[in-house]
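Worked example 2:
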Amino acid sequence: MTSHLREEQTRAWRRARRGERLSWASCGVLFTRRALVSAYLALVALLLSACAVSPLQTADEDVAPFGPAHVLSGEAAPGDRVIWGGRIAALRNLADYTEITVVSYPLDRGDRPRINQDPGVRFIVRQAGFLEPVQFMPGRYLTVLGQVAGVQSSSVGEHWMDIPLLESEQIHLWPADVSRWQNQTRFSVGIGIRL
């Protein structure tokens, strides 16, 4: 910073502290290039922090970009780690595990089902243990991280079809009130502060 600019800035600060009105030119002296660059970088950081984040913890491991239809077409193989989501159609608690039949929907960048899109292929999630039917009732939306376990023949009414099977690692059940998580723009500032 030149000495002339520094002197003008000092004078402007003194006048501002005394409560005098400053002209626009004096205000411009107070905002140096460094201050403008810092403000710009803070704005960029704020915008980047507002990106959608998945509720599932993938531990930085690769997740294959395959959907349930890729299993039926042979593009995805058993053992592929995937993230699928959709709407619960049925739940069956068996002796050692629970099967959830899900109608798939495409997912957004935050792994939320895009319910305004057309539904896709059904898939079955196999979860070890018991899941509460009242909590995982038909009509709720979920997102699942798991491994493709093959294809299972299952009936929908009187119609039999092949349905991809997913062994779950994590299940995220979305709130029953869809307006709480769908089609909302959210801004986050810092850690744990949401607007």
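The helical segments are 3-17, 24-30, 33-49, 68-73. The beta strands are 81-93, 97-104, 122-128, 141-156, 159-173, 188-189, 193-194.
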